[in-house]
Amino acid sequence: MEFDLHMALVILAAAAATFATRIGGYILITRMKSIPPRMEAALNAVPAAVLTTLVAPAFFIGGWESKLALIVALFIGLRFSHTWMLVAAWIVVMTWRHAGGL
């Protein structure tokens, strides 16, 4: 493989844009005396949005073991700690795969 200057410049530009957006948000928030309620609500919604972007593709594209594991994890997570939720989902996937996909 040979060095591609164009691709290196694209990667550097993407890195600079990513850094600028991250540092820009930090600078903006630190300069504010107080965070407006709407902005605080938006910032509080970020973890749920990130989790949704990670889980939704696994549910819709994954196999039946993924769908069942996510449903089990949902119900276990409503009642017990995150550790038990992960253990339950792992057991579902491993049992499904060990049984040959039923």
Automatic annotation (TrEMBL):
Source organism: Rhizobium esperanzae
* Name of the protein: Putative membrane protein
Keywords on this record?
Membrane, Transmembrane, Transmembrane helix
Q: Show the Pfam families listed in the entry.
A: AzlD
Q: Which InterPro entries match?
A: Brnchd-chn_aa_trnsp_AzlD
Tell me the superkingdom of the source: Bacteria
Transmembrane parts of this sequence: 6-29, 41-62, 68-93
Give yes or no: UniProt keyword Transmembrane helix.
Answer: yes
